[in-house]
Amino acid sequence: SQELEQSPQSLIVQEGKNLTINCTSSKTLYGLYWYKQKYGEGLIFLMMLQKGGEEKSHEKITAKLDEKKQQSSLHITASQPSHAGIYLCGADTPSGGGADGLTFGKGTHLIIQP
Amino acid sequence: DTAVSQTPKYLVTQMGNDKSIKCEQNLGHDTMYWYKQDSKKFLKIMFSYNNKELIINETVPNRFSPKSPDKAHLNLHINSLELGDSAVYFCASSPRDSYYGYTFGSGTRLTVV
């Protein structure tokens, strides 16, 4: 079965600084999803990556999938208090049919210090 | 207009009770799921339903049973609740081609006392 390892487990960053969260898979990634969860709330979809070398950006968040499709990174530029929360990476199955759901990493807890 | 809605948002109950959590999606998605998030925030899939057919069952206790009256609903029934069942339960849905996203509900926080 596929396993995802996220690093770091937790991160405290001063407001305005940049940061990177990594997600490494035990198998080739066929669909890699990034979600954000605010404490006590549901999951908010950020981005999905599918192709090796793919990079997507939304506002100050950039996600990349490496060429070998086994590692993804999420980079936040000029962090703000609104970026605080738990970031989760999730992997889809090779068939992409959706019936097996997503396998998630254990999450990265991000705290932004004013 | 909420895409995936779960009720209740909070549920506090005693050990041994039977409870249900409801989930509805208005996205026309083909597959619905239940996930469990433990106290360490680890999110793990429990069930998925596709066209009223159970696709996977991730070794969860048989006290947990998903029930889907129609394509838009997937309810979670839990019998004889135990302390270890305390967690946040998330419902989700996806289209046939899941590359275009899984949508999650806002979660149900279950506390067994």
Description:
The complex is a heterodimer of chains A (114) and B (113). With 114 residues, chain A is mainly beta. Chain A has strands spanning 4-7, 10-14, 19-25, 32-37, 43-49, 55-58, 61-65, 71-76, 85-91, 103-104, 108-113. In chain A, strands 2, 4, 5, 9, 10 and 11 form a six-stranded mixed sheet that branches. The N and C termini of chain A lie far apart (41 Å). The model of chain A has no long low-confidence stretch (mean pLDDT 90). By secondary structure, chain B is mostly beta strands. Chain B contains no helices and eleven strands. In chain B, strands 2, 4, 5, 6, 9, 10 and 11 form a seven-stranded mixed sheet that branches. Chain B is globular, with a radius of gyration of 13 Å. Chain B starts with a strand and ends with a strand. Chain A binds chain B through residues 31, 33, 35, 37, 40-43, 45, 48, 50, 86, 88, 90, 92, 96-104, 106-107, 109, and chain B through 30-31, 33, 35, 40-45, 48, 50, 55-56, 90, 92, 94-107, 109.
Report the C-alpha radius of gyration of chain A, rounded. Answer: 14 Å
Largest sheet of chain A: 6 strands, mixed
Number of helices of chain A: 0
Distance linking N and C termini of chain B: 34 Å
Largest interface, per-chain counts? Answer: A-B, 27 and 31 residues
Q: How many beta-strand segments of chain A?
A: 11
- Name the structural class of chain B: mainly beta
Approximate helicity band of chain A: under 10%
Question: What ranges of chain A have pLDDT less than 50 throughout 5 or more consecutive residues?
Answer: none
Would you list the SSEs of chain A in sequence order as H and E?
EEEEEEEEEEE
Mean pLDDT of chain A: 90
Write the layout of secondary structure elements.
The complex is a heterodimer of chains A (114) and B (113).
Chain A: E1 4-7, E2 10-14, E3 19-25, E4 32-37, E5 43-49, E6 55-58, E7 61-65, E8 71-76, E9 85-91, E10 103-104, E11 108-113
Parallel strand pairs in A: 2-11
Antiparallel strand pairs in A: 1-3, 3-8, 4-5, 4-9, 6-7, 7-8, 9-10, 9-11
Chain B: E1 4-7, E2 10-13, E3 19-25, E4 31-37, E5 43-50, E6 53-57, E7 64-67, E8 75-78, E9 87-94, E10 103-104, E11 108-112
Parallel strand pairs in B: 2-11
Antiparallel strand pairs in B: 1-3, 3-8, 4-5, 4-9, 5-6, 7-8, 9-10, 9-11
